[in-house]
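Risk register update: the risk of archive-format incompatibility is retired. Evidence:
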Amino acid sequence: MTDRTAVGFGIDDITVGPFAHGFGTTEDGRPFAFRTWSATLTIEIYRDDLGESVPEPADVVATAQAPITDIDLGDERSVTAFVRDLLHHTTPVAAAAVRDITMVRGLLGRISAVIDGM
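Archived output:
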């Protein structure tokens, strides 16, 4: 894993291919992650004070999705440009009134994401 980008947009880790995914920092310094699933690229921007902890669904403050039919998923520059452009189209996520995310639900969500990625 690489060090997080200090200032401005940056992709800290990227994997290209049919299941392209990675994470980085937005222009204003917030952490984000992206992944492709079922011909769609999804971006999640996390809260500012996340620190070094692994983000959970409750940490998501904005999201965006777009079809990946017109980009080359095998080219790192193409994926990076697509992610950079899509970051400008994120929409805020409504804050949950009650945080019902338990440790077990968080763990099951992560296991599910790994199984889906196989």
